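lol forgot to send this yesterday, sorry. struct tokens for the thing we talked abt
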């Protein structure tokens, strides 16, 4: 680890708390969605924390993500990984007992019947208007024909809820359950449809599993309040250099006259930049040094510059995105979007109880 590097501290205790809370609330088994580096929380770190909480089922979006998990060197004996998008290498299903996949269209259903795939590892996806993936309502009769004629028994059946009113969600859920009955209840051993927002606000209408991501990791969708969900992600580092602004004419390639120092005389350098996924859009956002707010004045590829006063010293602790409500508004972006931008050049550190 380089000196004064930034890292993302992941709070294991809070992730376990969130898992237990959602399990108690939903009274269902949980499929933990850990796509996109577990929404920036680290794939490996999140699997370790959620496994300790008792999770045995994980979901990712992409083939690349399941490959990453298989190569982590973790003991995956009791763990199943569901891939939500269709694999291009279908052999992965044969080679790995614990890899499962979603069937995302009627054409794929036909193709996988022809290929004689093992349907006990496949989940059938239905689309009730989300428009991303799945078999449409108009294709259900054809799907039933294929299922009955080939006597197919699946691991699961799924749909995706989208942002809408609770009335709409209830009606989709009823429609989903009626369609499962039409296709044959006994043909699916798992039923799952609810993401975090639906689980926290409307859920518990029938399925065997909930399929949550963001809430397990401690963040809530905009508009949802729930003090039982505890944040588990903090971006921390320290000051590695301080310069007197009066002696500088340039910071990076930027003429210092173009930057907004608000009368501050010093600049602190931080080892984070857009090369880490910390975009230039963060220019002029507030960060915290020793818990005191200071403004970021410039972001370059490897370095970020903060306007500071004489109270700050080299080695002082810096926190970025400490206040997410403020940051969401400043960046005009939800937290799950800008934290997911922070790439793997910033190390994730899983700590048992980091006291936040
Ligand atoms: C991302 C995703 C989820 C998890 O959603 P959260 O809002 O993070 O809980 C569930 N299901 C599917 C299909 C997804 O793509």
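and heres what i got for the seq, position by position
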């Amino acid at each position: 680890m380089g000196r004064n590097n930034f890292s993302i501290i992941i709070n294991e205790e809070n992730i376990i708390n969130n898992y237990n809370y959602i399990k108690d609330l939903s009274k269902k088994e949980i499929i933990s969605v850990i796509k996109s580096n577990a929404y920036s929380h680290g794939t490996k770190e999140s699997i370790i924390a959620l496994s300790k909480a008792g999770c045995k089922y994980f979901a990712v979006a992409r083939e690349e993500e399941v490959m990453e998990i298989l190569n982590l060197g973790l003991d995956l004996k009791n763990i199943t990984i569901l891939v939500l998008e269709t694999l291009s290498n279908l052999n992965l299903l044969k080679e790995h007992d614990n890899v499962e996949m979603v069937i995302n269209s009627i054409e794929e259903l036909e193709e996988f019947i022809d290929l004689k795939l093992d349907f006990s590892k496949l989940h059938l996806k239905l689309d009730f208007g989300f428009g991303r993936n799945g078999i449409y309502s108009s294709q259900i009769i054809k799907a039933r024909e294929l299922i009955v004629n080939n006597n197919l028994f699946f691991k699961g059946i799924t749909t995706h809820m989208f942002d809408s009113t609770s009335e709409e969600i209830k009606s989709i859920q009823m429609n989903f359950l009626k369609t499962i009955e039409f296709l044959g209840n006994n043909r699916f051993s798992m039923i799952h449809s609810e993401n975090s927002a639906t689980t926290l606000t409307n859920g518990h209408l029938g399925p065997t599993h909930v399929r949550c991501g963001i809430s397990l990791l401690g963040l809530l969708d905009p508009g949802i309040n729930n003090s039982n969900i505890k944040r588990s992600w903090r971006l921390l580092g320290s000051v590695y250099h301080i310069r007197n602004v009066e002696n500088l004419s340039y910071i990076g390639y930027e003429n210092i006259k173009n930057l907004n120092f608000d009368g501050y005389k010093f600049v602190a350098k931080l080892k984070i930049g857009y090369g880490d996924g910390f975009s230039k859009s963060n220019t002029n956002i507030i960060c915290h040094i020793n818990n005191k707010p200071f403004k970021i004045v410039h972001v370059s590829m490897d370095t970020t510059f903060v306007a500071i006063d004489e109270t700050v010293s080299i080695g002082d602790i810096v926190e970025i995105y400490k206040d997410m409500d403020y940051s969401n508004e400043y960046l005009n972006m939800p937290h799950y979007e800008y934290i997911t931008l922070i790439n793997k050049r910033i190390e994730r550190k899983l700590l048992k109880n980091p006291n936040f």
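The longest strand covers residues 292-299. anyway ping me if u want another try
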